[in-house]
Design goal:
Blueprint (H helix, E strand, L loop, with lengths): L26 H25 L8 H14 L11 H23 L4 H17 L5 H15 L2
Helix pairs in contact: 2-3, 3-4, 4-5
Amino acid sequence: MSSPTPPAYSAPYGNFGPTPPARRFRPAVVAALVAGLVLGAGGVGAAWALRGGDGSTGSGAAGDAHRACDALEGFDESDYGAKGTEGDVALNRFAAAVVLSDAAAAGDNEYKPLAEAMRRVQNQQLRFADFAEPAVQKDLGAARSLCADL
């Protein structure tokens, strides 16, 4: 004996009230958003222009080299590999110094020694897995010396 099949559920038909009107952006709202973006971008541009006035962090290869050295200066090798925020900061500053020195060397051969020194530090650190190793310290000192001469 077969059991009866229950009826399929369907939503009831009918009018359940007025459909809300489609939302449209008003021209004044769009104009205010665009004006805010333009003013914000202008403010950021002005801040960059004022900050870069000392010539030490210009654009191009020289700027990349200076930023690589700034990252290296803020790098504390004793925090590298530590758990938590200190380790993350050290890892990212070291990586930034390597990448920015490569960018500087790609833009101007004058910065090639800095990029090569940073690559030696990176390779030695990967080889020994420790910044306290004398070979790593030697190459790190050479890179810092090149930065001091910039």
